[in-house]
């Protein structure tokens, strides 16, 4: 049996994808829209050394596997992959076939793989390290992927044909309206990224906005953009852990894409801290990725955990609502935007492909391949309800009064 047939059996099931291997073997429909090329025995060595998605990711990132055609289409064609479930007879066959190659093809993880060590999970120092790993890649690289909005969170599409930029503007404006922003108010944006929400609130609502981020490169980019847009009298972004914000008395807080980095054990202190930063009647909009339920663990798969978001944790939306409710907030509104995140990721994938050569030159081939794989897989995850995106709006009561309209005003 050739390598192509063996690889197809490992993946399981019939697939509309063509598979070709270095030994000349092939399987699947010739001339298919997508072709997976097994370039060396190292591909299956990675699978044997790290069963499941991590081994496949390592094989792709190192170039032992190449995908010709659209990555999203390729991933959608295969069933869920878990080498642990491969029948023992097939695993033995794989190991026997690899036996003649292992000495010549030592398996090493790619250099871009990251495993935090020696620090307490979600300590300030370790959070700073893992955020820097993901976000301090290159502002120029993120410009190629995210587009002019430089917004790395789920957009809100007013129509299915809206552009990514229109959808990101709509998202920021939806957050602003849910928070009831008005001229003269003070906004704190925790985990502010490149300052998109901060600048939107200042420019379109006359709000004095402070954003904080653990990424030094994000803060530098944001401060420059704020100055160039003439918003320095209203907007500011600091390189700072949100837990080190000393100011209080904010009228509103936006948390867009931070909670995924907080962790279950820290949720009570996180929401309590934000509650205490608000004036009575102030609102919090918490926007984050969630699990659809509690039937599987909070930590991501090994590929996402090693290559994309080390220490990331996803909770069911009910856990977040309960944590908000138990730490001072009256929850007023909640909605799931998972289809919007699938559309957002499709836009980012298209941007990466359109600027592939520039992205590779800026961040390196290994990291660009990580992003191609990660974003296509996440798009599929949102479409298939493996993950969701929820916005939850809470109010710090003024005694028993919420200062909230009888019906939502947005």
UniProtKB/TrEMBL annotation:
Q: By its UniProt entry, which SUPFAM superfamilies does this protein fall under? A: S-adenosyl-L-methionine-dependent methyltransferases
InterPro entries, per database record = CFA/CMAS, CMAS, SAM-dependent_MTases_sf
Q: Provide this UniProt record's keywords sorted from A to Z.
A: Lipid metabolism, Methyltransferase, S-adenosyl-L-methionine, Transferase
Q: Which GO terms describe its molecular function?
A: cyclopropane-fatty-acyl-phospholipid synthase activity
Q: Report if keyword Methyltransferase is assigned.
A: yes
Enumerate the active-site residues. Answer: 378
Top-level taxon of the source organism:
Bacteria
The family database entries (Pfam families) matched by this protein are listed as: CMAS
Q: Which residues form a coiled coil?
A: none
Q: Which GO terms describe its biological process?
A: lipid biosynthetic process; methylation
The answer to keyword DNA damage applying to this record is no
Q: What is its EC number?
A: 2.1.1.79
Leading EC class = transferase
Give the UniProt family note: Belongs to the CFA/CMAS family.
Q: What is this protein called?
A: Cyclopropane-fatty-acyl-phospholipid synthase
């Amino acid at each position: 049996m050739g390598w192509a047939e063996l690889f197809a059996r490992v993946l399981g099931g019939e697939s509309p994808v063509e598979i070709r291997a270095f030994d000349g073997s092939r399987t699947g429909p010739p001339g298919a829209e997508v072709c997976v090329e097994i370039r060396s025995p190292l591909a299956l060595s990675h699978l044997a050394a790290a069963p499941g998605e991590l081994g496949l990711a390592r094989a792709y990132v190192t170039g032992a596997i190449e995908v010709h055609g659209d990555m999203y289409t390729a991933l959608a064609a295969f069933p869920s992959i878990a080498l642990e479930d491969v029948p023992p007879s097939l695993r033995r066959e794989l190991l026997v076939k690899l036996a003649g190659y292992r000495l010549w093809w030592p398996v090493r993880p790619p250099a871009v793989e990251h495993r935090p060590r020696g620090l307490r999970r979600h300590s300030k120092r370790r959070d700073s390290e893992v955020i820097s790993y993901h976000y301090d890649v290159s502002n120029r690289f993120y410009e190629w992927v995210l587009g002019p909005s430089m917004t790395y969170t789920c957009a809100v599409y007013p129509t299915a044909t809206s552009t990514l930029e229109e959808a990101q503007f709509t998202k920021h404006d939806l957050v602003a309206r849910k928070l009831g922003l008005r001229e003269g108010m003070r906004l704190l944006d925790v985990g502010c990224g490149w300052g998109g929400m901060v600048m939107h609130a200042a420019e379109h609502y006359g709000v004095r906005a402070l954003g904080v981020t653990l990424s030094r490169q994000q803060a530098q980019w944001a401060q420059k953009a704020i100055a160039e847009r003439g918003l320095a009298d209203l907007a500011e972004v600091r390189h700072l852990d949100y837990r080190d914000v000393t100011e209080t008395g904010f009228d509103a807080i936006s948390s867009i894409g931070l909670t995924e980095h907080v962790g279950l054990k820290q949720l009570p202190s996180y929401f309590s801290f934000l509650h205490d930063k608000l004036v009575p009647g102030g609102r919090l909009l918490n926007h984050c990725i969630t699990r659809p339920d509690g039937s599987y663990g909070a930590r991501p798969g090994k590929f996402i955990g090693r290559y994309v978001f080390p220490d990331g944790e996803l909770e069911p939306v009910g856990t977040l609502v309960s944590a908000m409710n138990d730490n001072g907030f009256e929850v007023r509104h909640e909605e799931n935007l998972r289809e919007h995140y699938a559309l957002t990721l499709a836009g980012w994938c298209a941007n990466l492909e359109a600027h592939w050569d520039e992205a590779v030159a800026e961040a390196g081939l290994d990291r660009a391949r990580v992003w191609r794989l990660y974003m296509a897989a996440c798009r599929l995850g949102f479409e298939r309800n493996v993950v969701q995106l929820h916005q939850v709006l809470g109010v710090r009561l003024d005694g028993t009064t919420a200062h909230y309209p009888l019906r939502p005003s947005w």
